[in-house]
Amino acid sequence: MSSWKSSADLAILNARILVDQKILDGGIAIKNGKIMAVGRQESLPKASETIDAENGIVIPGLIDIHTHLRDLKLDYKEDFYSGTCAALAGGFTTVFDMPNTLPTTNNSMRLREKIETAKSKIVANVGFYSCFPRDENEVIRIANEGAVGFKVFLNHSNLELNVEDNALIPMLNKAREAKKIVAVHAEDRFIIEEATKKSKNAGNDSYDAFFTVHPARAEIKAVKKMISLSRATRIHIHFCHVTTLKALSLITEAKAEGLKITCEVTPHHMLLTRNNPNGLNGTLITDPPLRSRMITMSFRHALGEEGIDVVASDHAPHSINEKSAKSIWNVSPGIPGLETTLPLLLTMVKRGRLSLSRLVELLAKKPAEIFGLDGKGAIKKGFDADLTIIDFREAHISSSAFHSKAKYSPFDGWKVDGKAVKTFVGGRLVMDEGEILAKPGSGHVLHL
Ligand code: DOR
Ligand code: ZN
Ligand code: ZN
Q: Ligand 2 being an ion, which residues bring their Cβ within 5 A of it?
């Protein structure tokens, strides 16, 4: 039995391993990129190489279903290498890239070209969303190209990112036939456009104007619309970055009705408010906008319950110039989140506000289940050896040390109580104490 065939390639030893919501002391044996055994150290097969976890806690590699990796003509903001390095540094082993790039990913050829560009640069597992194409017959070709799902930006009238209202139902039907999820940025563009016109005409270009033109009712209206379309088409709708309690309760009711609906929240919508003391700061501008303290507190409270399915980073990097424009209308909305999400959530765990197993559910287990990522999202024999070792150590968020090109953060200087110290993708140690060990192109494209 102790032939070379049964021996492991790698064993992670002296670990505390999160298995089925419990911490188990022992190690993990890995072979051919998969978990071969999990258990007490004496019970593990021999391995050609060992890594000492130094009593760190091993959790499943995190999965971010909402990342803007940019690249292509927006590679000055982020590229596939820098973005996936940021993912590994933040403990994420898999990310789903958003299609609002330049050019927009909205047909099978563009998706194929994007994947070709990504292949030689990525250091993590990456899946790609597409926007809906002009021609509904193209939906199936995009699906066959391996898109993880479709994305609709209801907040934009730009028809590269969105489709005419009367085209939405046929597109949703095609997506359902192709067994794809449709992720939605739910904000009503007509409300935003009308309010923006009003504010601009009144000469208002202050920080506050941004919040005026993205009212809560824009989100609630769009969520209602998509729920009724889900009822009509039976498509699985995933609501990105929910920011209002009303939207969350509508989503909860729709689930109870039996509709296929899931939702995510971001760390920034749970931890920052529009009235943050360092106020007039473009790094706080994100869409949907930050809300009130009452809402952030309610969302933090709701995180422990069933209603919220996933925490996603909505990593949305821009150049520092784009974030620091004088007029609010020239500030690019978005917050880089890959390198802050895990530390911020571990801090909630350390303070007793969230259990570690719920954190793992929100950041790995549910994302894998929702998108049907077989072999991901848990530490189990036969699963992919995508693993993250965490440590509850005190640190300060320091955006200048980000691997992302976006070296700023509204969380800069925040004291946090935990971070990822080692990340493994497919059984390879790819990040160690902030250092990226993976070679560009060593990551895999996920085709769903
Ligand atoms: O704040 C945002 N940034 N909201 C979006 O919908 C897009 C995103 C981006 O791509 O920068
Ligand atoms: Zn969005
Ligand atoms: Zn986004």
A: 185
Which ligand minimizes its atom distance to the CA of 322?
1
User: Which amino acid belongs to residue 407?
Assistant: K
Q: Report the nearest atom of ligand 1 relative to the CA of 98.
A: 10
d(CA 94, CA 124): 6
Return the DSSP state at 291: B
Q: 3-class SS at 7?
A: coil
What is the predicted pLDDT for the residue at 276? 67
Atom of ligand 1 nearest to the CA of 156: 6
Per DSSP, what are the bridge partners of residue 74?
71
d(CA 197, CA 179): 39
If DSSP states are collapsed to H, E and C, what string results for 62-114? EEEEEECCCECCECCCCCHHHHHHHHHHCCEEEEEECCCCCCCCCCHHHHHHH
- Three-state SS at 38: strand
Phi, psi of 204 (to 5 degrees): -90, 110
Atom 3 in ligand 1: residue holding the nearest Cα: 334
Annotated catalytic residue 20: no
Mean pLDDT by 10 residues, the chain (448 residues): 68 97 97 98 96 98 99 98 99 99 98 98 98 96 98 94 92 98 98 97 93 97 98 98 98 98 98 76 94 97 94 98 94 98 98 97 98 98 98 98 98 97 98 98 97
Structural domains of the chain sorted by starting position, each given as residue range(s) with its CATH number in brackets: 10-58+384-438 (2.30.40.10), 61-371 (3.20.20.140)
Report the sign of the C-alpha dihedral through residues 296, 311, 313, 109, in that order.
negative
